[in-house]
Amino acid sequence: MMYKTHMAFGVLLGLIAMEYFDVNKYMFIGAAVFGSLFVDVDEASSYMGKRTWPVSNMVELFFGHRGIFHSIWMAGLIFLGFYLFGLLNIGIGFLIGYGSHLIADMMTVEGVRIFYPLSKFSIRGFARTDGIFEKIFFTLVLLAIGYRLV
To answer: Which of 28, 50, 67, 97 is the most buried (most CB within 10 A)?
Structure first.
């Protein structure tokens, strides 16, 4: 999925989750957006990768794209870091964004090895990045965001 789709889906899930937490809505949604983009730090040519060069180059070199950063283990580890530094609400927002990215990538033909490196089990869908399904999904997500904001 393209970064705009990841951001929009992160915002939508953040808006939904925000209703269940007593949080600063701007920080929470900001954390969700950041989490939704951060996952692709493992690909130097991605939106996040281009903005974190040379870190993204090193991450891609050592871990590869859609490896450990596209697993629940890295999501949990980063959330734990937020929690240990007393940033639980930001960590929850980040985790929701991170999870939204993984869910969206599960819809693609490339899929996600969600338990990597402990398992090579992969969840794959039928969507192609920047294909018609992604455009439809993006449009529906934007409509759902608009509905939630009205």
So the answer is: 97
